[in-house]
Amino acid sequence: QAYLSYSNIAALTHLAGKPGWDITKTLDNVKIWTHEEGAVLSFKVEMQVKVPSHVAFSLLSDFSLRQRWDRHFQTCKVLQDVSEEEKIYHVTSAPMTGHQPRDFVILVSQRQPCRPQEPYTVAVRSVTLRAVPPSPEFCRSEILCAGFQIHSSSSSSCTVCYFNQVTSGVMPYLAANLTGSSKSIEDTALECIKFLE
Fold it and tell me: What is the domain-level CATH number for residue 51?
């Protein structure tokens, strides 16, 4: 478990630090970036939020609050409190037209910054849990690497960056967005800002 938590945080830090991100969309307080490497598409949503970074961190690291701003989360329940900094959740998402509803078993790892210039981190990846085998009513999907980095901008504002390395499991939700108006990503980002503020 210690290795999984470490690699969860390390994978997100590595993804965030990659060169070659292309900006695809700029709104007032939201920017959307993409990064392509072979068959792997990653995206980053950067949000300017008028709350202190530690407040954004405590709200975003509690995934049971996620349904309040992310309509892709239909249910989300804690399966296991691994430690103060790690929890395993079972998430179900609403079915898209022509697709079975999906479910995910995810490890969420949170870290406070060790040094002032470092971000708060909330990293997410899929894990396998014997207690929750795939069920016939859901299509079990995988999150390779996703999560948030929260950088303090001032004592009352911060920059929240959401990252997701897209697998075919998440693709139906994003394909239409990334090729077209990236509307759903934008809407979710604006809901997230509204929720945090």
Answer: 3.30.530.20
